[in-house]
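WARN retry 2 of 3 for item q-0093 after timeout on previous attempt; input resubmitted unchanged.
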Amino acid sequence: MVLKTALDLLILVAKSPSWPTLRLAKLIWTVKPNFTMVKCKNLINLYNLVQKVNSMGLDGDIVECGVWNGGSAALMAFACLKNNAANNRILWLFDSFAGLPPPGPRDGIIENKYYFQGLNEGSVQKVEKAFRKLSLPMDDVNIFPGWFENTLTKAEIERIAILHIDADWYNSVMSVLQAFYDKVVPGGFIVLDDYGYWDGCTRAFEDYVSQNRLNGIKLKQVDSTGAYFQKPFRPSNQ
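OK item q-0093 returned
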C-alpha cells in the first residue's frame, strides 16, 4: 500500500507540477496509509470539494460517517482551515471504533463470507494523532463513537456542506442518508467512498434515490471505488 501511495502521488505531481500539488501530495503522504484507507484519487477529490464549497461560500458543516483512524477527516479539516471564511465549519465524525458491523442480506456474497468481528477497527486516539500530524486543532471536531443507530440522531447538526459516507454496508449507508441527506444544503456534496465497489453501498444509494423520488442527481465516478454528487439547488423530488 505504501508503494501504491507513492506511485499515485508521483503521478499526481507529474501531471500537475506546482506548489499546491506538492503540498497536497505531502499532506496525503502524511496521513496514508496509517490513518486512512481511502484511495489517493478519492482523497484528492475530498480536498477539492471542501475547497469548492469554501469558494462558493456555502454554509454548513462537514460530516464523515466511517472515520477509521481520521486521515480523510484531517485532510478535509486542513482544506477548511486554509480558507478563513470557512473557519467556523464544525467537523462531525461518526464511527463505531470497534470495526464494521456484520453485513446483511443486501450486501454481497464476498462481504458476508469474509467478514469478521473487528474488521477495519479504528481508534479515537489515532484520529487525534492524525490531526496533530497536520498541526490541526481539535476545537471544532466532534467525535461520536458507537454504532450509527445510537449516534447519528444524537448530533445537533443543522446544515451540512460536505457529507462523506465511508460506511461500506447497505444498512449503514442507508442509515446515513436517511439521517443526513435532508440536512445537506443545496449545492453541497455527498461523497460515497465505496460506490461501485461494495454492493451494499451501491444498492443503498440507488434505493434511497428511488424511494425518495430524487430527480436531477448527477453521480460522478471518481474511480472504481468512489463517487459523489452535488445536491441540486432546487428540490430534486419535484
